[in-house]
């Protein structure tokens, strides 16, 4: 019995370690489960993250796909806009095709003529001096024929003043001075008309150039004892006069009583007046007094009929200001500084 008990006891003793191992196994099981949980826990977490990542990637892929679909369209539109802008800029910067010379030259000539015509119609005009009535201030055709520049707008702001060299349209009763024979053919007349526009041909024969001696309201006559023109009782000093009408001693009695005498053989050809210039008119005379058909023409010698007389200011075309041709004659045409109103 004892032996068997001992044997059982020994058996029990021998089984103790296995029984004791059971708690160890029970203790180890939670550890293993924890380990397993630890192992499986991250796996489950990673799966969720991977799911999220895969969702993000899917969204990104979808966005990329949409961008890929929409991007080229937007890019193409931008490229087209840039290309069109560059083409437009290139066309704008592209130099115009040069015309051949046989086209360019007529265009330039016509343009120059039109500009010249407009300028000479409204602002300034070049006049050809056909007669010698203003020698030596202006040379007529016999001395080469000066071309003078005429200011056409100056008298829009003021009236002609004594001393001005004025170009005007002669009244119908005035005798023409132009001694240049005009053309007879239609082509020649056309050439003269065109040439007169640019100052390379004689102007209309009824256009005159003279110097203003007196204006409206003034009284003019000739002469004093020295043969000078008198305006408002003041004898004029006219240094520009060239070849005055000759006289003999004793011929310069231009008094009204002397002019009224029946015998006129002894009356000087310089004598005229006194004549009061009407308002709005001007008395003009040439500097070449012995060769000028001016306001005094037909009045000299004390005559009272056939006198050309004063000119309406409205007939004034402009004031001569410069000699532009020939080059050797370039000069300004200033005023002589006379002022009849103040007796200077």
Strand content: 15-25%
Kindly report the average pLDDT value. Answer: 75
CATH fold call of the largest domain = Umud Fragment, subunit A
Count of all domains? 2
The H-and-E topology, N to C, reads as: HHEEEHEEEEHEEEEE
- Put simply, the count of helices is 4
Q: Largest sheet at a glance?
A: 8 strands, antiparallel
C-alpha Rg, in Å? 58 Å
* Second CATH tier, the architecture of the largest domain: Ribbon
Highest CATH level, the class of the largest domain:
Mainly Beta
The H-level CATH homologous superfamily of the largest domain, spelled out, is Umud Fragment, subunit A
Computed structural class: alpha+beta
DSSP helix fraction: 25-40%
- How many strands appear in the DSSP assignment? 12
Overall shape: it is elongated
Span between termini: 184 Å
Low-confidence runs (pLDDT<50, min 5 residues)?
1-45, 340-344
Key features?
eight-stranded antiparallel sheet; Umud Fragment, subunit A; four-stranded antiparallel sheet; disordered N terminus; 2 domains; 38% helix; alpha+beta
Architecture overview:
The protein is of the alpha+beta class. It folds into 2 domains: 1-89; 103-337, Umud Fragment, subunit A (Ribbon). The protein contains 4 helices and 12 strands; from the N terminus they run H-H-E-E-E-H-E-E-E-E-H-E-E-E-E-E. The protein has helices at 2-93, 101-122, 186-197, 256-259; strands at residues 124-128, 147-151, 165-169, 207-215, 219-222, 229-231, 234-235, 272-276, 281-285, 311-312, 316-325, 331-332. Strands 1, 2, 3, 4, 9, 10, 11 and 12 form an 8-stranded antiparallel β-sheet that branches. It has a 4-stranded antiparallel β-sheet with strand order 7-6-5-8, with no helix packed on it. A hairpin with a 2-residue loop joins strand 6 and strand 7. The longest helix is centred in the N-terminal third of the chain and has 92 residues, at 2-93. It is elongated. The model is unreliable at 1-45 and 340-344 (pLDDT under 50).
């Amino acid at each position: 019995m004892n032996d068997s008990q001992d044997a059982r006891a020994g058996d029990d003793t021998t089984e103790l370690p296995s029984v004791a191992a059971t708690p160890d196994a029970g203790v180890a099981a939670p550890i293993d489960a924890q380990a397993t949980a630890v192992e499986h826990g991250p796996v489950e977490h990673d799966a969720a993250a991977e799911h999220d990542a895969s969702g993000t990637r899917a969204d990104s892929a979808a966005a990329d796909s949409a961008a890929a679909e929409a991007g080229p369209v937007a890019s193409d539109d931008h490229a087209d806009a840039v290309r069109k802008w560059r083409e437009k800029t290139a066309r704008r910067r592209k130099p115009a095709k040069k015309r051949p010379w046989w086209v360019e030259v007529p265009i330039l000539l016509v343009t120059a003529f039109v500009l010249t015509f407009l300028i000479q119609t409204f602002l300034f005009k070049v006049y050809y001096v056909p007669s010698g009535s203003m020698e030596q201030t202006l040379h007529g055709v016999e001395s080469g024929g000066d071309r003078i520049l005429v200011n056409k707008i100056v008298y829009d702001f003021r009236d002609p003043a004594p001393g001005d060299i004025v170009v005007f349209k002669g009244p119908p009763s005035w005798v023409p001075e132009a001694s240049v024979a005009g053309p007879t053919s239609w082509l020649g007349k056309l050439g003269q008309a065109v040439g007169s526009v640019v100052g390379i041909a004689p102007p209309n024969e009824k256009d005159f150039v003279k110097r203003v001696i007196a204006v409206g309201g003034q009284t003019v006559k000739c002469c004093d004892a020295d043969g000078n023109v008198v305006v408002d009782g003041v004898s004029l000093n006219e240094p520009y006069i060239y070849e005055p009408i000759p006289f003999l001693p004793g011929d310069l009695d231009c008094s009204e009583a002397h002019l009224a005498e029946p015998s006129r053989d002894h009356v000087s050809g310089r004598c005229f007046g006194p004549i009061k210039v009407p308002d709005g008119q001007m008395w003009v005379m040439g500097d070449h007094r012995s060769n000028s058909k001016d306001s005094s023409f037909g009045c000299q010698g004390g005559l009272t009929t056939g006198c050309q007389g004063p000119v309406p200011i409205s007939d004034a075309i402009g004031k001569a200001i410069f000699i532009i041709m020939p080059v050797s004659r370039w000069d300004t045409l200033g005023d002589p500084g006379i002022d009849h109103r103040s007796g200077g």
